[in-house]
Amino acid sequence: MSDKLVTRNGETVDIDLVLEALEQSPDKAEVMEALKALRLDKVKDALDSTVKAAHFDLVKVFGDFLADGEKSSSTISTYTRQWALFTGWTTRQGLHILQVARSDANRFKEYLKTKYSNNSVRLVLAACSSFYSYMEAEQYLTRSPFVSIKYPT
What we know:
This protein is mostly helical. The protein has helices at about 15-25, 30-55, 60-65, 75-95, 100-115, 120-135; strands spanning about 5, 10-15.
């Protein structure tokens, strides 16, 4: 029969089970090694993102997007105008197109709402969402920052 331990929240635990779990847990060196590997992976991901951004040709990719599918000349003109609003805003914010986060997309929406009607805001957001979905499909990024953005009603 082993001794029992009562935890702070009132649970009773078998001490032998606690000791067994502690013996199986990693030691400090193993934990430190895992943390260093994790940090290294994060640095590699950041470098990969930076290199990708440095080689990213927005004009070419946007042109490819416009040529993809059967967009009418009116749609191409609309997308180009709406995209110019977004790229102007990102430039003023100091953001690279590939580094835009969902929170940035929401801030952009709030900015638009101060300047344009709800219909215009929806049009701009739809154009941005369409282009980011294209970039996601073409693997320029892993997820569009415009996914699930609520449009004004």
